[in-house]
Write a structure and sequence with these properties.
Number of helices: 10
Protein name: Hydrolase TatD
Oligomer: single chain
Strand content: 15-25%
InterPro entries: DNase_TatD-rel_CS (IPR018228), Metal_Hydrolase (IPR032466), TatD-like (IPR001130), TatD-type_Hydrolase (IPR050891)
Shape: globular
Organism: Halomonas marinisediminis
GO molecular function: hydrolase activity
Structural class: alpha/beta
Keywords: Hydrolase, Metal-binding, Nuclease
């Protein structure tokens, strides 16, 4: 795979956002990024995607995300990490893993607990195992005060029940890669949760319902993400070799969501970035770079 900007992205896919963007869900520890990560980061900067939240779905990937954030600190692109255990791996949860996760959450690069939650679609771990690991991670978030990065598939009612019981104990939480229906959306909004949207609504096969729902999400609750290397938008104006999604394509998702919300790309970029910086407790300096803000967080 080439390490050069020009050889990888076709001209038609070199987007630039009108205002800085935060990609709240980038799986850059995935093996597909191992050979050309520096070029991926350069392309993100060129697209005005200035902040990346690297998803830690288990102990190994959380540690890799932290190391990646440290390696690239001060290089013009702000990288942060999450640390959690995905519901697919919930069967692995035990006391040793709980201790390890608690230690990872104390690292300054970690800005959220997760990816954690419930997935009753595939049930790689049993529902009982998923709920046990999820509630354990909710307890960790309640103790350390960090926001939650949540995963949910086909488990909306049970997810809402659990979160309702914990709502007074935890701070902010975002349901990342939201793809569910209207009732589930409003259930989450009623719990004062945030919503992360991906290129799912760019999919003509299954994203139509989201196009109707995006106007119902307040700008103070909405954030953008690629969930790369997954969920490559199907309506890109040019084909992408290898079909691997990456942060440089977030401005295309911005454009699509702005269209369906009936607002300008600049307005949406500014609003979602402000929401993400507030949610993850990031600050912007004069150079536009972001860092941690560990002061007490108050929701707007």
């Amino acid at each position: 795979m080439s390490d050069t900007f020009d050889d990888f992205l076709p001209e038609a896919l070199r987007f630039t956002a009108p205002a800085p963007l935060v990609d709240i869900g980038a799986n850059l520890t995935h093996d597909s990024f191992a050979r050309d990560l520096p070029a991926v980061l350069r392309r993100a900067q060129a697209a005005n995607v200035t902040t990346l939240i690297l998803t830690g779905t288990d102990r190994e990937h959380a540690e890799q995300a932290i190391a990646m954030a440290r390696q690239h600190a001060g290089k013009g692109l702000a990288l942060h990490a999450t640390a959690g255990v995905h519901p697919h791996d919930a069967s692995r949860w035990d006391a040793d893993l709980a201790t390890a996760m608690g230690e990872l959450h104390r690292q300054p690069e970690v800005v959220a607990v997760g990816e954690c939650g419930l997935d009753f679609n595939r049930n790689f771990s049993t529902p009982a195992e998923q709920e046990r690991a999820f509630e354990a991670q909710l307890e960790l978030a309640a103790v350390n005060g960090k926001p939650l990065f949540l995963h949910e598939r086909d488990a909306g009612p049970r997810m809402r029940e659990i979160l309702h019981a914990w709502r007074d104990e935890i701070t902010d939480a975002v349901v990342h890669c939201f793809t569910a229906d209207r009732a589930t959306l409003f259930g989450y909004l009623d719990l004062d949760l945030h919503i992360g949207l991906t290129g799912w609504l760019c999919d003509e096969r299954r994203g139509h319902h989201l196009r109707e729902l995006v106007t119902q999400i307040p700008s103070t609750r909405l954030m953008l993400e690629t969930d790369c290397p997954y969920l490559l938008p199907r309506n890109l104006p040019a084909k992408l070799k290898g079909r691997r999604h990456e942060p440089a394509l977030l401005p295309w998702i911005l454009r699509e969501i702005a269209h369906w919300r009936g607002e300008s790309e600049a307005e949406l970029a500014t609003a979602t970035t402000a929401t993400a910086r507030r949610f993850f407790r990031l600050t912007a300096d004069a150079a536009g770079e972001t860092g941690r803000d560990d002061t007490t967080h108050e929701d707007s």
